[in-house]
Specification:
By secondary structure, the protein is α+β, with helices and mostly antiparallel strands. The chain folds into 2 domains: about 10-80, Arc Repressor Mutant, subunit A, CATH 1.10.10.10; about 95-140, Dna Ligase, domain 1. The protein has 6 helices and 5 strands, in the order ααααββββααβ. It has helices at about 10-20, 30-40, 45-55, 60-75, 115, 125, and strands spanning about 80, 90, 100, 110, 135-140. The strands form 2 sheets. A 3-stranded mixed beta sheet has the order 4-3-5, with no helix packed on it. The structure holds zinc ion (2 copies).
Length: about 150
Amino acid sequence: MSLKRDDKKLRLQGYIQAARDAGIKLTHQRLEIFRELASHGEHPDIEMIYKNVKERIPTISMDTVYRAFSMLERENVLNRVSFFSGRARFDLDTTPHHHFVCKVCGKVLDFHCADADRFKIPDEVLSWGKINQTYLELRGVCTDCI
Ligand SMILES: [Zn+2]
Ligand SMILES: [Zn+2]
């Protein structure tokens, strides 16, 4: 499923559906995690979501949040953004796009690029397994940090 980041309601429905598809019970805690995530407009990290949900559900554990994220990742309604801040960051926009990552402040900016979208995966790489996601990651220093 591909969703644009502005479709918050659709996004929440997608997470709920993903939980059903994965055969996972939709608990109050999971629903609150999904709500928090769906209303997020950026590239959230787990700590951020955990902190916000904890304000409403003080008993929630970090482990519960981790497991909810992992399930959504497995169901392909969420992507993990790799970069070097050491904190797992996720991407709510599962439509094809690319990233600029600031190595100083950790900011992740999205961009679209038709040339990068046409990137042809070498046959050898295709034989290594199933590709779920392809994106270009440009790393540098943003204008705020220069
Ligand atoms: Zn920066
Ligand atoms: Zn992104």
